[in-house]
Amino acid sequence: MKTTLDRDVPGGWEAGAAEYSLGLMPKDEIAGFEAHLVAEPDLQQDVAAWAEYFACFTDLIPEETPPPQVLRRIEGKVFGAVEKAPVWQQVLPYLIGAVVGVALAWIVFASGLLEPDRPVLSGTLIGADGALTLEARFDASTGVLTVVRTSDGVADGRVLELWHLRDDGEPVSLALLRGQETLVALSPDLARDFSGAVLLVSEEPAGGAPQGQPSSGLRAEGRLTTP
């Protein structure tokens, strides 16, 4: 190291290198020391040597992770203590989220967005002689069967009666077809599996079949299928 520099810093530049490495150099001397440090390779070597020397002492200290509260205390010292929010303010975001979630679920449920498309079934009911023709349409989403008579052919004082032919071969009355169009609300059990249903039409007395079974020959029949 150049001897001309030894007189500039109390204790010599070597002592200054040690102070600088430890971070103990007074603030008003750091700028001047660093200016010499840039221009003096020997001084740079002294700083590096002292830094390596002091590092040997830290190698003897076992590594330990400080507890979490140490960081909170440091942040409190630097940024100031953080005021703890009341319990209701801490819980409020969760309550709002829960209310919004329930509202969205209700909207989706009420609108039927998650329900699969329900099929629409239709079929033509026609007699063997072609004198009577009816169009039937079943909307599975509403459970309503619509029957429209497209031709006349009912005697005075008589009425057409609509039947569903069950899988066991027994006919079950669904409605009396008094007008040109009749709407029939099916029971949920029947509507659940109405695809391929066979419909029959008989001509009965004004009040309907007296014995709960078709009392005369069938006037028309047909099957409901997906268009």
UniProtKB/TrEMBL annotation:
Membrane-spanning residues: 91-114
GO molecular function: sigma factor antagonist activity
Residue ranges of domain Anti-sigma K factor RskA C-terminal in the record: 137-215
Gene Ontology annotations of biological process type: regulation of translation
Region (Disordered): 204-227
Keyword Disulfide bond part of the UniProt annotation: no
Pfam families, alphabetized: RskA_C (PF10099)
GO cellular component, one term: plasma membrane
Superkingdom classification of source: Bacteria
Keywords for this protein: Membrane, Transmembrane, Transmembrane helix
Entry keyword annotation includes Membrane: yes
UniProt cross-references to InterPro entries, sorted A to Z: Anti-sigma-K/W_factor, RskA_C
Protein name per Swiss-Prot or TrEMBL: Anti-sigma-K factor rskA
Organism for this UniProt entry: Antarctobacter heliothermus
Lineage: Bacteria, Pseudomonadati, Pseudomonadota, Alphaproteobacteria, Rhodobacterales
